[in-house]
Amino acid sequence: DSGVTQTPKHLITATGQRVTLRCSPRSGDLSVYWYQQSLDQGLQFLIQYYNGEERAKGNILERFSAQQFPDLHSELNLSSLELGDSALYFCASSPTDSNQPQHFGDGTRLSIL
Amino acid sequence: SQQGEEDPQALSIQEGENATMNCSYKTSINNLQWYRQNSGRGLVHLILIRSNEREKHSGRLRVTLDTSKKSSSLLITASRAADTASYFCATVWYNNNDMRFGAGTRLTVKP
Questions:
Q1: Which residues of A touch B92 (CB under 8 A)?
Q2: Residue A49 contacts B, CB cutoff 8 Å
Q3: Pairwise CB contact (< 8 Å): B104 & A42
Q4: Most exposed among A42, A70, B6, B22, judged by the fewest C-beta atoms under 10 Å?
């Protein structure tokens, strides 16, 4: 058990819809990272938050947004969903930054019909 | 791109044999990390090696880093069927804070 909790585990929705993925980091970790894993794109870094503030941005689409709340949990919002957004979305956490190991949740599998 | 690239893409060996996976990258890095992923599950951190380190060990795992060649290798000794998984290298760019993953090596260990 990594200590990182992601909900929901599975999500099925339709094109054009909006969903919110939730992540609770390991106790004591201040940084949260979001990744997207798909068969054609592999594992892509989306965004990192540190103690409530955006720290680094990767290949995140404008239709996607994230935030980290005062209790350090994070949410990833995906809107105007397209078929190509179907993927596994992982959250990871670390004490401060990427110079430390990241601990991953089990992911949310998003299926767009 | 600062992403690591693993080689080979897939590796199949017998239990007891050693498995070696390689990772190459293109930019100066702060550190390089290896992760393991069982099918459909989250990634599990294996080893972090910093740019000023050349070799690290953890149990049956040995990681080397050659910054002059911009490459790293992961050696799993005396492999077991339970080692069957995908293995990813991830690089943290020297002047950046995000971590970029390679495409991974799919390891199959046959009992």
A1: 98-99
A2: no
A3: yes
A4: A70
Query: Which of A:75-94 have CB within 8 Å of B?
Result: 88, 90, 92
DSSP-derived 3-state class of residue A31 = strand
Q: Closest residue of A to B33, CA-based?
A: A101
- A41-76: burial string, b at 16+ Cβ within 10 Å, e else: ebbbbbbbbbeeeebbebebeeebebebeeebebbb
Residue B26: which region, alpha, beta or left (left: phi > 0; alpha: psi -120 to 50)? alpha
Each residue's pLDDT tens digit, A33-69: 999 999 887 899 999 999 999 998 988 999 999 999 9
- Contact between A107 and B42 using a beta-carbon 8 Å cutoff: yes
What single string gives the DSSP state of each residue in B25-52? -SS-EEEEEEEEE-TTS-EEEEEEEETT
Q: What is the pLDDT of residue A41?
A: 79
Asked if B59 contacts B79 with a C-beta cutoff of 8 angstroms, the reply is no
Q: What is the pLDDT of residues B32-72, one digit of tens each?
A: 999 999 987 899 999 999 999 999 999 999 999 999 999 99
- Using the 8-state DSSP alphabet, how is residue B82 labeled? G
Q: What is the mean pLDDT of residues B27-35?
A: 92
Give how far B14 is from chain A: nearest CA, Å.
Answer: 27
Give the residue with greater pLDDT, B4 vs B88.
B88
